[in-house]
Amino acid sequence: ILEPLTMNAWNHTNEPNFVLMGLTDSKEIQLVLSVLFLFIYVATVLGNTGMMLIIRLDVQLHTPMYFFLTHLSFLDLIYSTVITPKTLENLLTSRKNISFMGCFSQLYLFALFAVTECFILSSMAYDRYVAICNPLNYPVILSSRRCHSLISVSYLIGAMDSISTISPIITLNFCNSKVIHHFFCDAFPILALSCSDTQDAEVNIFILAGATLLVSLSIIFFSYVSILSTILKINSSSGKHKAFSTCASHLLGVTVSYGTMSFSYLKPSKSYSLGKDQVASVFYTTVIPMLNPLIYSLRNKEVKSANIMEASTFILKGQTNNSELQIILFFVFLAIYLFTLIGNVGLIILVLEDPQLYTPMYCFSCALSSVDAYYSSDITPNMLVCFMSKNKIISFHGCATQMFFAVTFGTTECFLLAAVAYDRYVAIHSPLMYAVSMSPRVYMSLIIASYAGGILHAVVLAVTKFSLSFCCSNEIRHIFCDIPSLLAIFCSETYVNELLLFFFVSSIELVTILIILISYAFIFLTILKMNSAEERRKVFSTCGAYLIAVSILYSPSLFMY
After folding, report:
1. 1 pLDDT band (50/70/90 cuts)?
2. Which helix or strand (DSSP H or E) is residue 394 part of?
3. Phi, psi (5° rounding) for residue 532?
4. Which ranges does the record mark as transmembrane (predicted)?
């Protein structure tokens, strides 16, 4: 028995790597899927982080219902993070290995958060039952202690369930094949690699998954039967509609979550279908965590109105009141704006039309030009309108949108400048490895990551700023909706918001400046080793324009923020 085991099989005592085959072998489809998964993941992070911040910052949402929703958003965020980053790595690189312990850690965390989410959904159903069927005793029955107890029990059951699930699997012996035909370490694809008898492990999964779904669904079912019975007794149609509307989002979330998970786990491993089960897995590991914030925010009036303030419009008071000077400034800024558009759009067209310029350096230049064009278009047109009209009003949503895009493009530009510095470092310090180190997949990933970082930063700042209350004055002492000028008209305590602004801006600028400084320190050392003065001059000339751009961008932003 021992000899074949050592030659043909392994287990937790001699741990090889597994290979995750992923979703497709096609390089083109992998690239498309990587972009799609990245956007879904960014949307998941933004949506769930935004939901948690809204609930945390709005005192009106400090209720049991939103307490449970905060934990649901947290679970969706972590749940997705357990799976998606590794999936993106597999799609973007040729390295598809995952260690034995890494694989089972992923399976453990996935099971933990999935089971915990089931019981939090049942806790939310119980919360709705108490709120509708016993509203007078609602604060007593669902006290803070009771809510924390329900959450703690949900996590405890999740931990116990996940340990019980992986224990029989991790002790199995596995055959020669290390290839997992899936994009993450799920139970049934791992069982397919085992030499041992997997019947006990399959029965164990079926019992645990069945018990989890049965218990949590029973709580949800009986809660909603009681809710329906109570609603039918309400005489007012508006009362019935209000009661139904508070439950609709939860029912939709339950249906979406339980439907896909039941399809995947309540069946024997022999009926596992690679295509169908992978589609279902993509849905409940990546899509559902993105959809949940949408489902709960769109169906709940409290969340939608969490950032509605008395001021529906703002007045931009940053321009001069001198009408003659306004006309002069209008033409000056119009000329600058046209020059900005022509220059940046012209550079993009030039690069796209010339195949010789399809290099990382010029692709980064295109990305920077597009950011500059968008950045300028976000602010300048509205400023020109204010110069030429007495109406200097901007709507609440227009102000929020302007601030969001200004932060997005400003942050994206910082990350892109850091990426350009890294590109110059590789080109000068390791020219022979340049084509490999800065392949199209690498530099496109850097560009996409820069945009994703900009969007994430903008969402966090926008949510924290526009969830506060404004005072009677709606006059913004600036030419556009910038964060410091908005903080000046808040009624609410702004200390936390100022701290967040300082933390995020300083972190982004510190990280990007460090990347630039370290890159150019290595570049400078490489240049000093060059014997030819002409070669040194040529290398310095390629970096000079970039260093000027960095100085111009970072100096005012550090002064302002």
Report:
1. very low
2. strand 393-395
3. -80, 125
4. 29-54, 66-85, 105-126, 147-170, 205-231, 243-266, 278-298, 327-351, 396-422, 442-464, 501-527, 539-559
Predicted confidence (pLDDT) per residue in 284-338, tens digit: 788 888 777 777 765 555 554 544 444 567 777 766 777 778 888 888 888 898 9
Query: One fold for both 2-304 and 313-560?
Result: yes
Residue 175 has pLDDT above 80, yes or no: no
Sign of torsion, CA 300 302 307 308?
positive
Burial 512-542 (b: 16+ CB within 10 A, else e): bbebbeebbebbeebbeeeeeeeeeeebeee
- Within its chain, how far is the Cα of 298 from the centroid? 19
Report how far residue 65's alpha carbon sits from residue 55's, in angstroms, rounded to the nearest whole number.
10
Mean per-residue pLDDT, 363-381: 88
Return the sign of the alpha-carbon dihedral for residues 519, 522, 528, 534: negative
What pairs with residue 18 in β-bridges? Answer: 98
CA 533 to each of CA 440, 474, 530: distance values in angstroms, whole numbers, following the listed order: 32, 60, 8
How far, in Å, CA of 431 to CA of 530, rounded? Answer: 14
Q: Which two tokens stand for residue 190?
A: 């791992």
Cα separation, 288 vs 250, in Å, equals 13
CATH topology of domain 313-560: Rhopdopsin 7-helix transmembrane proteins (1.20.1070)
DSSP 194: B
Specify the DSSP class assigned to residue 469: P
- Where in the chain are the domains? 2-304, 313-560
Quick one: pLDDT at residue 53? 77
Helix, strand, coil in percent for the chain, rounding step 5: 80, 5, 20
Mean pLDDT is lowest, of 88-92, 288-292, 484-488, for 484-488
Model confidence pLDDT, tens digit, residues 44-73: 887 788 788 778 777 777 889 889 989 999
Q: Whole-prediction pTM value?
A: 0.59
φ, ψ (nearest 5 deg) of residue 99? -65, 160
Please give the share of the chain, as a percent, with pLDDT higher than 70. 84
For the chain, the distance separating the N- and C-terminal CA atoms, rounded to the nearest angstrom, is 69
- DSSP string computed for 470-481: B-S--EESSSS-
- The token pair at 558 is 């550090």
Give residue 195's identity as a one-letter amino acid code.
C
Asked whether the predicted pLDDT for residue 7 surpasses 50, the reply is: no
Q: Which two tokens stand for residue 467?
A: 């969830």
The stretch 354-377 carries a mean pLDDT of 87
Report the CATH superfamily, name and number, of domain 2-304.
Rhodopsin 7-helix transmembrane proteins (1.20.1070.10)
Residue 409 reports pLDDT greater than 80: yes
Which of 101, 147, 143 lies closest to 124 in space, CA to CA? Answer: 147
Buried b (16+ CB within 10 A) or exposed e, 468-485: bebeeebebebbbbbbeb
Measured CA to CA, the distance from residue 318 to residue 476 in angstroms comes to 7
Q: What is the DSSP letter of 490?
A: B
CA distances from 364 to 340, 351, 353, 513, 544 (A): 17, 11, 16, 17, 16
